[in-house]
Amino acid sequence: MATLTDPPRQSFQIGQLIYDTRYRSTTIQVVAFILIMAGIFWLGNNLITNLAERGKDIDFGFLGNRAGYDINQMLIQYSNDSTHARAALVGIMNTLLVAFLGCITATIIGVTAGILRLSKNWIIARLMSVYVEGFRNIPLLLWILIIFAVVTESAPRPSDFRGEDAEASMILFDSVAVTNRGIYIPSPDWGPNSGLLIAIFLISFVGIFVYRAMARRKQEATGAQSPVFLVGLALFFIPTLIAFFILGRPVTLNYPELGGFNFTGGIQLRNSLIALWIALSLYTGAFIAEIVRAGILAVDKGQTEASSALGMRPKRTMNLVVLPQALRVIIPPIISQYLNLTKNSSLAIAVGYMDARATLGGITISQTGRELEGMLLLGVFYLIVSLIISGVMNIYNNSVKLQER
Amino acid sequence: MKKSVFLGTLAIAGVAAGYAAADGHSSGTLAQVQDRGSLNCGVTTGLAGFAAPDANGEWEGFDVAICRAVAAAVLGDASAVEFVPTTGQTRFTALASGEIDMLARNTTWTFSRDVDLAFEFTGVNYYDGQGFMVPRELGVSSALELDGATVCIQTGTTTELNLADYFSSNNMSYEPVPIETNAEGQQQYLAGACDVYTTDASGLAATRATFEDPDAHVVLPEIVSKEPLGPLVRHGDNEWGDIVRWTLNALITAEELGVTSANVGEIGGTTGNPEIRRLLGTEGDLGAMLGLDADWAANAFAAGGNYGEIFEGNIGESTPIGIARGLNAQWTDGGLLYSPPFR
């Protein structure tokens, strides 16, 4: 007689936490978590104790005090009577400005270079290789300094523009002055009725999109193509120009003029901004070029062949068949390049560009002695900006990626 | 599993490192310097006459001499100094974090640095004031004519704040060009990226002396601020602060009493002046009160001489920098140098 008995139920033993595969991974994770938390707590505690030993506390009150220093490039109102918080905000705006400009130009440069590097034209392809390898493999700081040195040393001083037979003269009908302190361009003076002009411009801008949507619907329904580009161009310029003259030229240009030590009037694009902008764009552009090239190569060759078989020209093939598919591969790594560019803009201090690192993380820290607080705030700022950029780009990525069912 | 072990190790290593760092600060700075056998002294990244490496890479200058005097007093060896170049922005962090034992870097003694930043200024080794330098060809003769000028300015300094105050109180505007180091400022100024270079008058003189054609540049007569420059140490270690303070005072007193690097060897035995004997350790035990050898001050003088010798040798009128003693003369000569007595 065979007797089948249930295996005796073992009660839970402490050793099972390590030897039983059901529990082991949980055990290890819990232990590691406790250790890491203890470590972080200990380090933080150590920090506070050591700071207290030196008579220092953690206090953000300094942000409300008078800053006392001046900043050359201000996108918002600021004077040396403003607070440190305001100075930090000025720096943040400057960081965002150069990051924004840099992301746009880096994308244009990168996409162009990436496509051209695949060109069948030997010279163009090699030139692009030289560009990509040159910029990718030399530290960004060097490029910033080199470009800054070039724009500073090669351009004339403002004083060279002075006198009867001046050594230097302004270009583009005396409207733009290129000096070793920056490029002075005319600035718009907004007269009365200029609001109306802007409204008309915005309406015609919306008109372009409406027209494009109509053209697409027409093509999908009938197959007939409309001259989208030409009409768009016309809509962009003609209504605004007509309104400009009808309204009696409400917007005039304020030309830079040599007065005193410097040019006055107009907008000054400082050398620090130009050098940083160009260097960031070219450097990040080189990485984006490689991403674009990889994305294009990732699209199956059969797609191009099929498109040719349908009689599409190479340019249309690239724009309508290859690039839209390549975008799905390209977007995610480009997001990190945007993040890199934004964070790399903190190298601005090398050329005296007053970004957040230079105001909040530089002058404010050394004037108030609040290193820890300043650096924490700076870290939080870069974290937030990066998260916003990747959040926005992820939304875009979701809209172009393959819809899986 | 491997990952967790790695993380665990990392956490333990971090904790251990934290303990090690904490231990480093528990004993006094004097003991640390003596254990290490060298003094970590923060100086500028390079300002001729004040602190700059010479052709052989040896640091020399007015501020460097203070470091060497302290090293000689504490360790008996004026060459036992590790010079740590700091910028206007990094100097206070370097001192607060313990990376350097003392800072001798044209640093202005201000209320907030002394009280809020928790540093201890141990005296004034140079009475300075902020000035402006412009190219002669601009034809500017007064700082009040600088409305609208572009000004090169070292960031994170008191001069930056004085500049803002001076221009706004005179209703003038200017465009600041922020720079990190004196060398960068010099290059930008010479390239014409700014019309004016402003810093302490002594720094201007030192910078101008290194120009190819110093006469093409003028230092404007206006001195817009008080800049008492001196060495400083961290708050809370009074023993160490006393050593640096009294080494500086000893240098000043030595000039007043006529003790020089030439006669320091014998004057202690031959002089009838009891203060010289106390200073040189042949009488009394001032050295022991500081926790140093009896001949601490004699060692300090042997390193580079008394205050006057250091001044003349590095920045005085016989050097290319050519600064007159002015406010930095002894009180007996109408200057501000006035050391408390050694008693």
List its traits.
heterodimer; A: 405 residues; mainly alpha; MetI-like fold; three-stranded antiparallel beta sheet; two-stranded antiparallel ribbon; 12 helices; extended; B: 343 residues; alpha/beta; D-Maltodextrin-Binding Protein, domain 2; 2 domains; five-stranded mixed beta sheet; three-stranded parallel beta sheet; 14 strands; 41% helix
Overall description:
- The complex is a heterodimer of chains A (405) and B (343).
- Chain A is mainly alpha-helical and 405 residues long.
- Among the domains of chain A are: 31-61; 84-135 and 274-400, MetI-like fold (Orthogonal Bundle).
- Chain A is 64% helix and 6% strand.
- Chain A is built from 12 helices and 7 strands.
- Chain A has helices at residues 16-19, 21-53, 84-117, 122-136, 140-154, 194-222, 228-246, 271-298, 301-309, 314-344, 356-368, 371-400, and strands spanning 177-179, 182-185, 187-190, 251-254, 257-259, 262-264, 267-270.
- In chain A, the strands form 3 sheets. Chain A has a 3-stranded antiparallel sheet with strand order 1-2-7.
- In chain A, a hairpin with a 2-residue loop joins β1 (177-179) and β2 (182-185).
- The longest helix of chain A has 34 residues, at 84-117.
- With 343 residues, chain B is α/β, with parallel strands linked by helices.
- Chain B has 2 domains: 29-127 and 229-333, Periplasmic binding protein-like II (D-Maltodextrin-Binding Protein, domain 2, 3-Layer(aba) Sandwich); 130-225, Periplasmic binding protein-like II (D-Maltodextrin-Binding Protein, domain 2, 3-Layer(aba) Sandwich), CATH 3.40.190.
- Helices cover 41% and strands 16% of the residues of chain B.
- Chain B has 14 helices and 14 strands.
- Chain B has helices at residues 2-24, 29-36, 62-75, 91-96, 111-115, 158-169, 182-190, 201-209, 238-257, 264-270, 274-280, 286-290, 296-304, 307-314, and strands spanning 39-43, 52-53, 59-60, 81-85, 102-103, 119-121, 126-128, 130-135, 149-154, 174-179, 196-200, 217-219, 227-229, 232-234.
- In chain B, β9, α6 and β10 (174-179) form a beta-alpha-beta unit.
- The longest helix of chain B is centred in the first third of the chain and has 23 residues, at 2-24.
- Chain B is globular.
- The model of chain B is unreliable at 17-26 (pLDDT under 50).
- At the A-B interface, α2 and α11 of A face α1, α4, α6 and β10 of B.
